[in-house]
């Protein structure tokens, strides 16, 4: 029963975590915030996790572990429900659009009007009042606090669940395998919710003039969080009814009962004191090991690149290849994530199949990472032209860039703060139909077509009934390049994952057996504090620098970015990843050299390590699931051979 409950809790935390990652773009647009703020929201999960991680590691074995896991799942549920609150406080989402005026026939509207538009109108006085009260506030803090609570709640699940299994049953990995399906389904749910309008069931969908490819589109981000909250709540229920301890398989009941009653007989303060007393000597031994020190720096750089990719990959695909966010999330969930998982398990299988020792694992990990890095550099060849926006990236006829007004729209009194793009027959995108100089239209909603567009006429089409349609112009070359980028990314993800398990096993084989849990804790702590926490923030801040046109909130003020310089975006995003992974390549080479010097073939340490491999062969299956932190010991073996 515990194994089934733990498997579902693994599923629930992976499900909600991947869903939250997939909704970063939707949250950015709904709250009209920058990418750097989204990075802070994303990093709040790591902050919450780190707040209780040390406490869990010290007190975990001394408390009722199933009930602590139940509390953790319940806190995750509360965090998910708290994140949904702004949706019901902010009212309907009013996307940015221009004011149009009806002509005498009442069947056509004119975007070009001598009366200057002051901004998108609110639907009524009540909506205006609600807008003033909520839009300019910081309701995204609900999402931040909710994500913080999710981090706090997730902290005890993995270490306490795994230690409970290790204490009272034979080696079992099925819970971890079942949990692998959680992230995939989370991304699939994210893809579905991103394609559904945020105010589904409240507004007439046919009246919406934008589609999921539009940068103003906001999906039903809150709907998936309700599902995640319910799943986490259900995951907590079985643990409330499980006992403090279980009979250990294959042992005498009397011995087992006396063994399990020992923690209750000890004074908790005294046992904690002993753990603290051992902390600094153990820490000194770990950081006196050069292989472990290099491994920690390698882990930090890998965390930075991985977290940056997971957080902003969907935005990159959308801006670079003209792909909707929903499609990008779907492809990550059904292509990239399964391939990554397959690579991880195949890497572990190869270690067991060929009984690789540490020098062979280091060589294998180093080669696979360098090959993946070289493939990573090919990302730069999947280039795509910058979206041609009149006045931003393309000049009006006879004018230079960054001049929004021209003679063709001088009489229209257009508002430069507005963004409601139209695509002219000339293949140029205009910020609004007003900037295209359009004087009439036909159709309604997203099928509206503007006519008599004077700026479109002036771009080489000559005089006539030049028209423009709602939405940005499609970049065909970008769409054609996307399958090649996806294939390249899939190959790169597989090769990186293939060497991931051998890399992780290097840490287990290079430290003394009784410091393995401590080493995992330090590795996790360093990776999250120096990688998982800052990476989304500085990635987002640098991406913000490539923005060409910021949106405008319904009640004024700068919103989220509408148009990026795709060339600069590509160079910044891919350049950051390439730079971080270049550092990883250097550290892999240093790590390989250190391991070859220390574990020389036919040497004493090499002989000892081969003997030790027999007792650590089971670690391959659990290398990716152990996150037990300082304070717990895995073995009482001598460490003279290793240190």
What does this structure look like?
The protein has 643 residues and is mainly alpha-helical. It is 60% helix and 5% strand. It has a five-stranded antiparallel beta sheet with strand order 4-3-7-6-5, with no helix packed on it. Strand 1 and strand 2 form a beta hairpin. Helix 1 packs parallel to helix 4. It is globular and about 80 Å long. The protein starts with a helix and ends in a 21-residue tail after the last helix.
Characteristic terms for this protein:
5-stranded antiparallel sheet, mainly alpha, 5% strand, MFS_trans_sf, single chain, 643 residues, cell membrane, two-stranded antiparallel ribbon, disordered C terminus, sodium-independent organic anion transmembrane transporter activity, transmembrane, 60% helix, 23 helices, globular
Question: What spatial order of strands do you see in the largest sheet?
Answer: 4-3-7-6-5
Q: What is the count of DSSP helices, taking H or I runs of 4+ residues? A: 23
Strand content: under 5%
Strand elements, count? 9
- What quaternary form is this? single chain
Main β-sheet description: 5 strands, antiparallel
Q: How many angstroms separate the termini?
A: 41 Å
Uncertain segments of ≥5 residues (pLDDT<50)?
103-107, 116-136, 252-274, 612-643
Morphology: globular
Whole-number mean pLDDT: 80
Structural class: mainly alpha
Radius of gyration, CA atoms, in whole angstroms: 28 Å
Helicity level: 55-70%
């Amino acid at each position: 029963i515990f194994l089934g409950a733990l498997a579902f809790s693994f599923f629930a935390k992976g499900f909600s975590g991947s869903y939250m990652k997939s909704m970063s773009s939707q949250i950015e647009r709904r709250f009209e915030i920058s990418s750097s703020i989204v990075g802070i929201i994303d990093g709040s999960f790591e902050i919450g996790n780190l707040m209780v991680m040390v406490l869990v590691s010290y007190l975990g074995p001394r408390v009722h572990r199933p009930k602590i896991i139940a509390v953790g799942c319940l806190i995750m549920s509360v965090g998910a429900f708290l994140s949904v609150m702004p949706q019901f406080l902010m009212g309907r989402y009013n996307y940015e659009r221009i004011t149009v005026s009806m002509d005498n026939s009442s069947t056509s509207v004119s975007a070009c009007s001598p009366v200057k538009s002051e901004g998108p109108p609110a639907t009524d006085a009540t909506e205006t009042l609600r807008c003033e009260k909520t839009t300019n506030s910081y309701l995204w803090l609900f999402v931040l606090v909710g994500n913080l609570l999710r981090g706090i709640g997730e902290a005890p699940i993995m270490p306490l669940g795994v230690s409970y299994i290790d204490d009272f049953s034979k080696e079992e990995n099925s819970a971890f395998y079942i949990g692998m399906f959680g992230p995939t389904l989370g991304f699939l749910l994210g893809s579905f919710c991103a394609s559904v309008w945020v105010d589904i069931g409240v507004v007439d969908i046919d009246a919406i003039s934008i589609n999921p490819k539009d940068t103003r589109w906001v999906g039903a981000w809150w709907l998936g969080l309700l599902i995640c909250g319910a799943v986490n709540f259900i995951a907590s229920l079985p643990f409330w009814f499980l006992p403090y301890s279980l009979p250990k398989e294959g042992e005498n009941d009397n011995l087992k009962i006396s063994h399990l009653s020992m923690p209750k007989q000890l004074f908790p303060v005294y046992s904690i004191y002993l753990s603290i007393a051992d902390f600094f000597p153990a820490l000194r031994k770990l950081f006196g090991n050069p292989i472990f020190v290099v491994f920690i720096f390698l882990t930090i750089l890998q965390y930075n690149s991985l977290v940056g990719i997971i957080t902003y990959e969907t935005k990159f695909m959308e801006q670079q290849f003209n792909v909707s966010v929903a499609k990008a999330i779907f492809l990550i969930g059904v292509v990239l994530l399964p391939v990554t998982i397959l690579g991880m398990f195949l890497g572990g299988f190869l270690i067991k199949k060929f009984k690789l020792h540490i020098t062979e694992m280091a060589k294998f990990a180093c080669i696979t990472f360098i090959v993946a890095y070289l493939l990573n550099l090919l990302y730069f060849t999947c280039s795509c032209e910058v979206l041609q926006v009149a006045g931003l990236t393309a000049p009006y006829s006879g004018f230079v860039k960054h001049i929004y007004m021209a003679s063709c729209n001088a009489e229209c009194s257009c508002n430069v703060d507005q963004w409601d793009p139209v695509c002219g027959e000339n293949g140029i995108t205009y910020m609004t139909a007003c900037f295209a100089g359009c004087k009439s239209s036909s159709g309604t909603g997203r099928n509206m077509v503007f006519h008599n567009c004077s700026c479109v006429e002036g771009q080489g089409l000559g005089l006539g009934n030049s028209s423009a349609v709602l939405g940005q112009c499609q970049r065909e070359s970008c769409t054609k390049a996307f399958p090649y980028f996806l294939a390249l990314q899939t190959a790169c993800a597989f090769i990186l994952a293939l060497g991931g398990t051998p890399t992780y096993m290097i840490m287990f084989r290079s430290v003394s057996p009784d410091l393995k849990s401590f080493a995992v804790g330090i590795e996790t702590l360093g990776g999250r504090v120096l990688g998982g926490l800052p990476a989304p923030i500085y990635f987002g801040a640098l991406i913000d620098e490539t923005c060409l046109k910021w949106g405008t909130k319904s009640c004024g003020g700068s919103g989220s970015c509408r148009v990026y310089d795709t060339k600069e975006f590509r160079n910044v995003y891919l350049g950051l990843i390439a730079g971080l992974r270049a550092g990883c390549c250097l550290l892999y080479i240093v790590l390989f050299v250190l391991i070859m010097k220390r574990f020389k073939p036919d040497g004493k340490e090499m002989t000892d390590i081969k003997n030790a491999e027999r007792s650590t062969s089971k670690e391959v299956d659990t290398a990716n699931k152990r996150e037990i932190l300082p304070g717990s010991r895995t073995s009482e073996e001598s460490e003279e051979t290793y240190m």
